[in-house]
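Predict the 3D structure for this chain.
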Amino acid sequence: MWSRKAKHIIVLLAVMAGPGARCAEMGAAAIDAAEPAKNTLSSEKPTPAGVRLQVMLDRAHFSPGEIDGRFGENAKKALRAFAEARQLPSSDVPTEDVWNALRADDRRITANYTITEQDVGGPFLSKLPSKMEEMKDLPSLGFTSPREGLAEKFHMSEQLLAALNPGQRFERAGDSIIVVDTGSAEAGATSRADRVEVNKSRQTVKLFDKSNALIGFYPATVGSEEKPSPSGTLKVTEVDRNPTYRYNPDYHFKGVRSRKPFTIKPGPNNPVGTVWINLTADGYGIHGTPSPGKVSKAESHGCVRLTNWDAERVAASVAKGTPVAFVDGSR
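Done. Predicted structure below.
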């Protein structure tokens, strides 16, 4: 029998070990060795297997959106699209065939990264205004912190970046941190898209090549009841990188009271993010967002909203004249 004192010590040690144990579980070694399966994935909390699966999908250009370690709906959408592209049976968990196809890319999932002067140089916003009118007088719409910029650089949530680097403030150039390796340097290597399909019901964007092969998938926020997205097929007219946002009062966006047009300076926290892909319907486009964690989980003003990095990959795949079909349905 355990004495009362011994039991108290055991309980105390368990409590003290809890957070540390969770940090250890989310370490680089655990992520690199994780095997995604039904019992190692969770939509409620980050797991090493969730991180590994999201990174491998992202590398293949079947984006789970923001990499946070949770096996949520965006990750499931990406997994189904990857299976479709490989002509494998679809499933909400990785089948053996799908997992074998994904891990053909056998690079490590995590990497060491040295923070640069550019990462911490700013300028940074002290706070991102919640209303568009409050953004119009700012000189730029940059990141609010080095941590936010580093998380976006590696397609991660800020929470996951912090969990991998406990105690790190991300403010000093020369510090080494752990990140996930999404192959960001090859982001522009996406194949040329012959057409784009935006599914308004599924909240997704798919890219197809000339042979009708599915070559890219991205979760999206597509329209709202207030301002639904268009129907039918439009075309790309131009790609504007690092765009200035121009508000037209004729849009009557909910929450915007200005009756005069105004502009918002460029930056990753600009309302349309780091890239605007203009379409033939006036005022509609495919663009980035300052809130990557909300993609497919919120509403848009009629446009197609992606994470900044996904919008940049789509922009690298399309050209003037590329058709963009807006469809409804479960496929």
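Residues 1-24 have pLDDT under 50 and may be disordered.
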